[in-house]
Every structure is written in structure tokens, then in C-alpha cells.
Design a protein that fits this description.
It is built from five helices and 13 strands. It has about 220 residues and is α+β, with helices and mostly antiparallel strands. It starts with a strand and ends with a helix. The C terminus is likely disordered.
Length: about 220
């Protein structure tokens, strides 16, 4: 995977004054780590948006103006404007390449069960990611989940069925369901249609009060 980079520079503006940075298309950031002093940074909003989207939980090379070597970081907390989606603030965690970290890894579903292809079943995905622990250099871009082996209705895959390298430990509970093969709901819909059809054929044997009064007056 191509290395993702963020260009940044130090900032002295903090607190409510960071609104001026956002107005200029910049995003306030902070980088921190174990036994490291936090540093206030700023970067171009467009470039940071793109970098975060491309990284997908992977390591990012943070190039700080005036420093020779990049810091390897993970995007930890990303604040966005609810309406516009623009970045408001980004927290970056500087990793130690010799110490394990915990990250969320996306699940990538591949294959298609035969029952799904003939419209006799549907796939219910209950998890889209799992938490793992590993060294920063071993972080996975995604974990492949092959659902082609699901053959019968109610067949399922659990977290314990996920295949990962020995260098990666899955922290999500092993008994959590990842995906399940469910029957389609056509039969239920057909039964409801039959019930409504039967109701339409029921003979009305009672008469309303108005009808009885008209007959009495005659």
C-alpha cells in the first residue's frame, strides 16, 4: 500500500481563535504519544481530508515543517462539522514501532453463497470491523471474509472464524457473529396477501343500524 503522508506546521493559535485557521482552509491538529509532549499543529484541510480517507486506519507519515524525519501516527479522534462534513480538529497518535497498538480493522466480504445467487437467502452482516492488537508495522488494511462457503439457511461465520496472521491478535469477542445466511421474506409476504384475500371473500351477515331503521319505517 502506498504510504500516506500529511504535511503540517506548528501553530500558536489555540482555543476559540482557531476559527481563523478554519476560515483560511486550515485544520488545527494535535499530535501526542506515550512519554511524548503534545504538539499543536495545523495543516491544509483538503490534504488532510484526503490523507485520512486513504489511510483507512493505517499508519500516516506526519511531516512537520522544520523537522528532518516524519513521525508515524494514527488518526485517533476526528471532529467534523455535522452539516458540512468539514474537518474541525484532528488528534494524531504518534506510535512507537516497537510497541503494540490497538486499532479497528475493516472487514472485506468476498464471494457469494449459492442460495443468495438464486434469491433464496440474504446475507445479514452484523459486524463491519473488529478490534485488533499488533505492532504498527503489522496493521492490516482489511480482513477478508469469504462468505462463499455458507451453504444452508442459518449458516454463519463468527469472529473466531476470521483468518489473520500470527502477528495480529483479534480482541473482539470470538463468539460474536460476523455474518449469517437468512431466508428471504417472500413467503411471509405471500401469507399476508392470502390473509387479506380471504378477508375480502367473507360474507357480511350483519346489517348496520341505519338499515334496520329504514326497514322498520316502511
Amino acid at each position: 500500500m502506498e504510504r500516506v503522508e500529511i504535511q503540517a506546521s506548528s501553530r500558536v493559535v489555540t482555543g476559540k481563535k482557531v476559527k481563523r485557521l478554519r476560515a483560511e482552509g486550515l485544520v488545527p491538529m494535535i499530535v501526542y504519544g506515550r512519554k511524548k509532549e503534545p504538539a499543536n499543529l495545523k495543516g491544509i484541510e483538503f490534504d488532510i481530508q484526503r490523507a485520512i480517507a486513504r489511510s483507512s486506519g493505517q499508519l500516516i507519515a506526519l511531516n512537520i515543517e522544520g523537522q528532518d524525519n516524519p513521525k508515524m501516527v494514527l488518526a485517533r479522534e476526528i471532529q467534523r462539522d455535522v452539516l458540512s462534513g468539514k474537518l474541525l480538529h484532528v488528534d494524531l497518535y504518534e506510535v512507537d514501532m516497537t510497541e503494540k497498538v490497538r486499532v479497528e480493522v475493516q472487514l472485506q466480504f468476498v464471494g457469494e453463497p449459492k442460495l443468495v445467487t438464486i434469491n433464496e437467502a440474504t446475507l445479514m452482516q452484523t459486524l463491519t470491523s473488529v478490534e485488533v492488537e499488533c505492532l504498527p508495522g503489522d496493521i492490516l488494511q482489511s480482513i477478508e471474509v469469504d462468505v462463499g462457503g455458507l451453504v444452508e439457511i442459518n449458516d454463519s461465520l463468527m469472529v473466531s472464524d476470521l483468518v489473520v496472521p500470527d502477528t495480529v491478535a483479534v480482541l473482539t469477542a470470538a463468539d460474536e457473529m460476523v455474518v449469517k445466511l437468512n431466508p428471504v421474506l417472500e413467503e411471509v409476504e405471500e401469507e399476508e396477501e392470502e390473509i387479506f384475500a380471504d378477508l375480502g371473500e367473507v360474507e357480511v351477515i350483519g346489517r348496520g343500524k341505519g338499515e334496520e331503521e329504514e326497514e322498520f319505517e316502511e
